[in-house]
C-alpha cells in the first residue's frame, strides 16, 4: 500500500460507472445500487443493449466527445475503466478525463494494473500521472490478473481441457474481479483515496491452476506451457488481433519472469475479510466452466 487517507466531505450523490458492461464495472454497478441514497449512472456505448443494474443509463464513448456532457453532468465520483483497446491515452482517453474534471467530478476511482507504479510504459501509468496532476482526488486500484480471465479470454480452451498460456513456471496472485469491485464500491462510498495493490490470497502457477480446475470440475484440465513464439503463432493463426496477441505475450512474460506472484494484504485491509480464493471462484463459476 503506497498511501491511504480518507477524503473529508460527504458521500457522493451520483457516481458514473464506465465499463459498466465489463468484468469489474458490472459488479461495481451491482454493489453500488445496493445504496439507496446513491444515484448510479451506467456509462455505456449501447444503452438499448444494457440490462445491468443502474438508476440511470447514459450513452458514453471515450472516443466521442459529443457524449461527454450528458455523461458527466451532475456527477460527483467516477469509476474509471480504461478499455483494453485504448492504448493511446493522450489522444483517446485524456479528452474524456479533462471533460470529467471540468464538469466538476471530484473523485476518480481508477481500475489500474499491478506494477503500474514501476512501469511507466503501460497506459495505466500514464492515466495515473494525468489524474494526479489534474488535482482531482484519486484512488488507484492496481489489480493483479483477474480470475475471470479464465471465463472470458480463456474459456474455450479451458472447456477443451487445456490452458495454453506462455507463463512457464511463473506464479500469479490472481484476484477475483468481484473483490476488486467491492473495493471500488468502498472507495467510492467512503471517499477513500490512495493506491492499493489488489491480489487474491495466494499465488499459483498454471500447473496449480489446472489442478484446481480439474479438482472442482467434471473434466481434466492440463497446463500446456507453450513458448512465447508458439503461443503467438497459434493465436495469430486462429485470427487473433495481432496487437492483442502481443500485449498478452508481454503480460505472460512478466509472469514467466516471476513478477506477477506477489500477494498483497490490501483487499483484506479495505474489506475487512479475506479475498476470494481461486477454488471459490471455480466453484462459483462452475456452470459457466462446465
Ligand atoms: N484482465 C485482467 O486480468 C486485468 C487485470 C488488471 C487490470 N486490468 C485492466 O482493467 C481494464 C478493463 O479490462 P477488462 O479486460 O476487464 O475489460 P472489460 O472491462 O471487461 O471490458 C471493457 C469495457 O470497456 C467498454 N468500452 C470499450 N470501448 C469503449 C469506449 N470506446 N468507450 C467507452 N467504453 C468502452 C466496454 O463496453 P462495451 O460493452 O461497449 O464493449 C466494456 O464495458 C483494462 O484497462 C485492463 O488493462 C485487467
From TrEMBL:
A Pfam family hit: NmrA
Boundaries of every NmrA-like domain copy: 14-224
InterPro entries (alphabetical): Ergot_Alk_Oxidoreductase, NAD(P)-bd_dom_sf, NmrA-like
Gene3D superfamilies membership: NAD(P)-binding Rossmann-like Domain, UDP-galactose 4-epimerase, domain 1
PANTHER family: PRESTALK A DIFFERENTIATION PROTEIN A (PTHR43162:SF1), PTHR43162
The protein's name in its UniProt record: NmrA family NAD(P)-binding protein
Lineage summary: Archaea, Methanobacteriati, Methanobacteriota, Stenosarchaea group, Halobacteria
Amino acid at each position: 500500500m503506497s498511501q491511504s487517507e480518507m477524503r473529508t466531505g460527504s458521500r457522493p450523490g451520483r457516481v458514473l460507472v464506465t465499463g459498466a458492461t465489463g468484468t469489474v464495472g458490472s459488479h461495481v454497478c451491482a454493489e453500488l445500487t445496493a445504496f439507496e441514497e446513491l444515484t448510479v449512472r451506467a456509462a455505456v456505448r449501447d444503452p438499448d443493449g444494457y440490462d445491468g443494474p443502474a438508476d440511470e443509463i447514459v450513452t458514453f464513448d471515450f472516443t466521442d466527445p459529443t457524449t461527454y456532457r450528458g455523461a458527466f453532468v451532475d456527477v460527483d465520483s467516477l469509476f474509471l475503466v480504461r478499455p483494453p483497446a485504448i492504448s493511446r491515452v493522450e489522444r483517446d482517453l485524456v479528452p474524456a478525463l479533462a471533460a470529467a474534471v471540468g464538469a466538476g467530478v471530484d473523485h476518480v476511482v481508477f481500475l489500474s494494473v499491478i506494477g503500474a507504479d514501476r512501469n511507466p510504459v503501460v497506459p495505466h501509468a500514464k492515466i495515473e500521472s494525468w489524474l494526479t496532476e489534474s488535482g482531482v482526488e484519486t484512488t488507484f486500484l492496481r489489480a493483479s490478473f483477474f480470475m475471470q480471465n479464465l471465463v472470458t479470454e480463456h474459456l474455450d480452451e479451458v472447456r477443451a481441457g487445456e490452458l495454453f498460456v506462455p507463463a512457464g513456471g511463473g506464479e500469479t496472485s490472481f484476484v477475483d474481479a468481484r473483490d476488486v469491485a467491492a473495493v471500488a464500491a468502498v472507495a467510492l462510498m467512503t471517499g477513500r483515496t490512495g493506491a492499493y495493490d489488489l491480489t487474491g490470497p495466494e499465488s499459483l502457477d498454471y500447473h496449480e491452476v489446472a489442478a484446481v480446475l480439474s479438482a472442482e470440475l467434471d473434466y481434466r484440465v492440463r497446463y500446456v506451457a507453450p513458448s512465447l513464439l508458439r503461443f503467438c503463432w497459434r493465436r495469430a493463426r486462429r485470427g487473433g488481433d495481432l496487437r492483442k496477441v502481443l500485449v498478452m505475450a508481454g503480460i505472460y512474460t512478466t509472469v514467466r519472469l516471476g513478477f506477477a506472484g506477489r500477494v498483497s494484504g490490501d483487499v483484506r485491509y479495505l474489506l475487512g475479510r479475506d479475498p476470494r480464493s481461486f477454488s471459490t471462484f471455480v466453484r462459483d463459476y462452475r456452470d459457466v466452466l462446465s
